[in-house]
């Protein structure tokens, strides 16, 4: 047997040994996956059960606040929690509120024992109800964080786009990496859209280049909505208008893409491209400054590691980013100007396209949503600051 063949045989035996170890490791891996799936199912069912009990308990507490805390004995019977010490301890476990009397007496005994001092008891009970309500709210936030690491059913939008695929990322590193990739995607596409709008406005006066630009807008906003839905499934707290805003923008870009060339289109073209240039510049400024602000707040423990930059203004931006407000309001009123222009064009005698009126309504919706949401945040923050200054 030649020396080269012997070396090949030795390598084969070494590979065979490593392969056996690999098979054993893979067997353990599959076993752990099955255990993980079982734990995920157990946690999900336990959270659902806890949330149901908390919902019932919250309704009971609301009845207590509306009917008076002295009717607590009657109201607690709605949950079946008024006659046993075990029930009392169950509420203590669910809410995190512990009372010295609960482990030893039932609710009925507790309220009978204190019926002789109603005024004093009513005050204590009112404070207890408020404390329990606050703990329930805190517990719901904890459940939200727990569910970010558990598989869940996709929403309607993700089901339509991806199907029933599990999009939950199991580690903080994977979640943060996906969030960081989302932020970079927004930055790069904002720069590309800025360059595209400048080129179409000043250099490329062709309908085909306008269609490419509008198609890029449609693809950009569609991709944003998908990625944001995945981030929301993984615990990101972006919500409200700033989520809906991208769906409306997707619709608007799609209508712009279908608008045929003609005299009415040419009357609005330059105004829309100028607006796109301004919007891209403002979004770039927002990304640049919001990212630094979020990094600082996360380091201080004041923000979640999955919080995202947005195209609007949120309460956490008050310190250090108020200089962006004039640019934001300018963009909002430019959207209103676009809506007014399109409404006027829709009544023009040469207008035959349905896209004109639909775009006018869409720009008006964007203006109202952006302006009112920003105004609400600013007003709430000013009221909060005014309340702090009045305190001694």
From TrEMBL:
Superkingdom field: Eukaryota
UniProt GO cellular component terms: nuclear inner membrane
Pfam family membership, one: TMEM120A-B
Any GO BP annotation: fat cell differentiation
Localisation: Nucleus inner membrane
Coiled-coil segments on the chain, per record: 5-67
Membrane topology: Multi-pass membrane protein
Chain ranges passing through the membrane: 185-206, 212-230, 242-260, 316-334, 354-378
Chief place where the protein resides: nucleus
Keywords from the UniProt entry: Coiled coil, Membrane, Nucleus, Transmembrane, Transmembrane helix
Statement: the UniProt record of this protein carries the keyword 4Fe-4S: no
Keyword Magnesium: no
InterPro entries xrefs: TMEM120A/B
PANTHER family named among the record's database cross-references: TRANSMEMBRANE PROTEIN 120B (PTHR21433:SF2), TRANSMEMBRANE PROTEIN INDUCED BY TUMOR NECROSIS FACTOR ALPHA (PTHR21433)
Protein's job: Necessary for efficient adipogenesis. Does not show ion channel activity.
Family under the similarity heading: Belongs to the TMEM120 family.
The protein's name in its UniProt record: Transmembrane protein 120B
Organism: Macaca fascicularis
Lineage of the species this protein comes from: Eukaryota, Metazoa, Chordata, Craniata, Vertebrata
């Amino acid at each position: 047997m030649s020396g080269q063949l012997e070396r090949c045989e030795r390598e084969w035996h070494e590979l065979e040994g490593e392969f056996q170890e690999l098979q054993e490791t893979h067997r353990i891996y599959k076993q752990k996956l099955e255990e993980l799936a079982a734990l995920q199912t157990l946690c999900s069912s336990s959270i659902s059960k806890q949330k149901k009990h908390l919902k019932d308990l919250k309704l009971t507490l609301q009845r207590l606040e509306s009917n008076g805390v002295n009717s607590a004995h009657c109201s607690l019977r709605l949950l079946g929690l008024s006659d046993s010490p075990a029930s009392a301890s169950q509420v203590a476990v669910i809410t995190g509120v512990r009372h010295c009397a609960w482990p030893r007496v039932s609710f009925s005994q507790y309220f009978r024992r204190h019926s002789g001092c109603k005024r004093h008891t009513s005050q204590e009970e009112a404070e207890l109800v408020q404390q329990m309500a606050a703990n329930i709210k805190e517990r719901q936030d904890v459940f939200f964080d727990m569910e970010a690491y558990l598989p869940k059913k996709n929403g309607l939008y993700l089901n339509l786009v991806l199907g029933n695929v599990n999009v939950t990322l199991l580690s903080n590193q994977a979640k943060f990496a996906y969030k960081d990739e989302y932020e970079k995607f927004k930055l790069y596409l904002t720069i590309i859209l800025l360059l595209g709008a400048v080129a179409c406005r000043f250099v490329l006066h062709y309908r085909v280049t306008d269609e490419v630009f509008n198609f890029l807008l449609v693809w950009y906003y569609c991709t944003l909505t998908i990625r944001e839905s995945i981030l929301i499934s993984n615990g990101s707290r972006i919500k409200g208008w700033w989520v809906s805003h991208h769906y409306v923008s997707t619709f608007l870009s799609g209508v712009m893409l279908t608008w045929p060339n003609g005299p009415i289109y040419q009357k609005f073209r330059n105004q829309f491209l100028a607006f796109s240039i301004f919007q891209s510049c403002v979004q770039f400024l927002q990304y640049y400054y919001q990212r630094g602000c979020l990094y600082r707040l996360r380091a201080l423990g004041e923000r979640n590691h999955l919080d995202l930059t947005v195209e609007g203004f949120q309460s956490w931006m008050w310190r250090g980013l108020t200089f962006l407000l004039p640019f934001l309001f300018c963009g909002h009123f430019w959207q209103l100007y676009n809506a007014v222009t399109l409404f006027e064009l829709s009544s023009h005698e040469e207008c035959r396209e349905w896209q004109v009126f639909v775009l006018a309504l869409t720009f008006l919706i964007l203006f109202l949503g952006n302006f009112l949401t920003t105004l609400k945040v600013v007003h709430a923050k000013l009221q909060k600051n005014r309340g702090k200054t009045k305190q001694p």
